[in-house]
Structure of UPF0764 protein C16orf89-like:
Amino acid sequence: MRERAGYSTLFRQLTVLLRRLRTGRVQAEPEQLQQIASLQERAAHLADRTLPELERQDKDYYTKLSPIVQPGFWESDVTGRTTDSALLSPPSIPRDHPFSEDDSDRCLSELLGTGQNGDQKCQISDACWEMMTSPSYTGYWLTHELFYLEVL
């Protein structure tokens, strides 16, 4: 079910990429541009079909994370910055807390203001900050950390 929200996110991010390609900020071959446009159309179609079903099947989950599937949320076109490699550090002690989709979702809803704190956005608990920015996770967990930081 959770992947359904991803179609909307993908559509919005592809919208930004296409805008950059069409304005010349990013370069690509014409075939690549066509493939990206096709993917964007497919993502839009899938999002239109699946988001109402997600809302119907899991109203609580949809409500908590609904801000990320709203128009405009992922369409911010901010120029990225490069991180100073001197600031990077190797993982410290391995985490004793296993990966949990529910914990990740709870931290996202806390960030979005759709969690237990009501509509207070960006009220990040120490526990969520520590968990969602830990340098010691690897693999699939990193996608959740990256997603969290991208929303932030």
User: Anything to note?
Assistant: The CA atoms of residues 21 and 28 lie 7 Å apart. The radius of gyration is 17 Å.
